[in-house]
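Observation: inputs received (chain + adenosine-5'-triphosphate).
Thought: call the complex predictor directly.
Action: predict_structure
Action Input:
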Amino acid sequence: MAEQERIPRNFITDIIDDDLKAGRADHVATRFPPEPNGYLHIGHAKSICLNFGLARDYHGTCNLRFDDTNPVKEDMEYIRSIERDVQWLGFHWQEPVRHSSDYFDQLYGYALELIDQGLAYVDELSPDQIREYRGTLKEPGRCSPYRDRSVEENRALFEKMRQGEFAEGAACLRAKIDMASPFICMRDPVIYRVRFAAHALTGQKWCIYPMYDFTHCISDAIEGITHSICTLEFQDNRRLYDWVLDHISIKSRPHQYEMSRLNLEYSLTSKRKLNLLVEKGIVDGWDDPRLTTISGLRRRGYTPASIREFCRRIGVTKQENTVEMSALESCVREDLNANAPRAMCVLHPLKVVIDNFGADGVTQSEFTVPNHPDKPELGERTITMSKEIYIDAADFREEANKQYKRLKLGSEVRLRHGYIIKALSCEKDAEGRVILVHAEAVPNSVGANVENHKPKGVIHYVNAADCVRVQVNLLDKLFTDPNPGAAEDFLSVVNPDSKTVILDAAAEKSLGEAQPGDTFQFEREGYFCVDSKDFKAGQPVFNLTVALRETRKAQAQL
Ligand code: ATP
Ligand code: MG
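Observation:
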């Protein structure tokens, strides 16, 4: 990764710098701790870029740790997808991959330590009662009648829980902290519960599972994490994080720091909500290119560098805010503008017959053109033309005012990389739609100015004789509401027009060989990426990655 990818200074790098300077730390160890209950989204990319980026910039380490304490919702498919996404983004974790479940034995031991100090008890209130006893922000909680059990009794009952002798919800282990704390998370939080579910990694070994707040801080300490970064909603929980580590025998002492979440306009950053879109079939899987999941962005043609650059630009702060979609789009546009090969594809083909093709000075049928205007290293290709070509229907009008820089009857435009042509007449169908244009080419006008011929603009075209017919998916925002996550029912703000399928766009011949994941700038249209799902050789399907800044809509207004 390039040097300019260093994380710009932020409050966390300030903390690290201070810690290193004051000798509170002599290295940096971070972790990225996803729960494997869905695919990663753009919000996770922010956390990945920060945690792995800090490890890179400070020559430290970053662990990938699956926070797999809820056997009911977790799945190997999610584990594999998360590993793939982190690697695809360009990061490497410190081997091996960790799992909270690797520490179940140790966590159990630390729970016993709390019991032995009179700092944890087995409660037999029901989950509803526990909630009721917990109180509210205005009212203190009440103590459970089981709170003052003896150490021996708690040991015996916790063992009974472990042996599977309590039904789910019939008993749990709670830390004994303070039922009157202004921080609700400190009102005797549950730290172990009964779940009769097979775990993806530990199988049937356990029927009690530790809760997040108990697990996370201890896992950090076991791994020697120095700076444990999470999002702001865990601010209060930091007290519990510290309380647990203060009361068990572990030596290592990580610290938790909170940053604001990434919220992105028109997209969801909640695995639970994304899962609903997938389950209801509203999108074509977790990697639907309209989703801002990492796999969806990949399928759409986003590059890892563009996502890293986006994360660099949004920065790391404690202020909650919502980032505009255009911020993400401009990152990929800049990257693809610099790196994607150019090609021509006519989305709405209209046939043009060059009546004088073959006459003197109008015989050139092959043109060698660069794949990129500024990058000779991307090579060259040959495009062809013949008597019949296709242009985009939007690039022809019978009449138009002077602002119209495309083809109209009686005036001239240049074909990209080719001849100047002049439209002579057109044919229409019964409904009055133009179905064919007759034109003539200006002799010897390829790559040359010709006296008395001043084409108004340049339009793209393909050769009707050898173009390939391809499917192009024009993708738009998945939601009509910029903040779908806040909508009462986010399913009601799904954009019904988020995908427009063009079945028979006409692409220049070379595009027939495009491979899954290949990205191109279709000249004058935008950036497009070959879909990687159900790929058939010779029949690429293209997804719109992002429009050119100058969209066709804007052009059409001219
Ligand atoms: P989700 O609601 O999507 O499940 P989560 O926070 O529960 O999100 P985790 O798998 O627990 O998801 O998250 C792994 C890491 O990614 C955590 O450290 C979390 O703070 C971070 N993270 C998740 N969402 C965002 C976001 N929108 N912005 C920044 N960091 C995030
Ligand atoms: Mg979570």
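Thought: report the result.
Final Answer: DSSP finds 13 helices and 29 strands in the chain. The pocket of adenosine-5'-triphosphate (ligand 1) is lined by residues 33-35, 43-44, 46-47, 67, 230-231, 261-262, 269-271 (CB under 6 Å).
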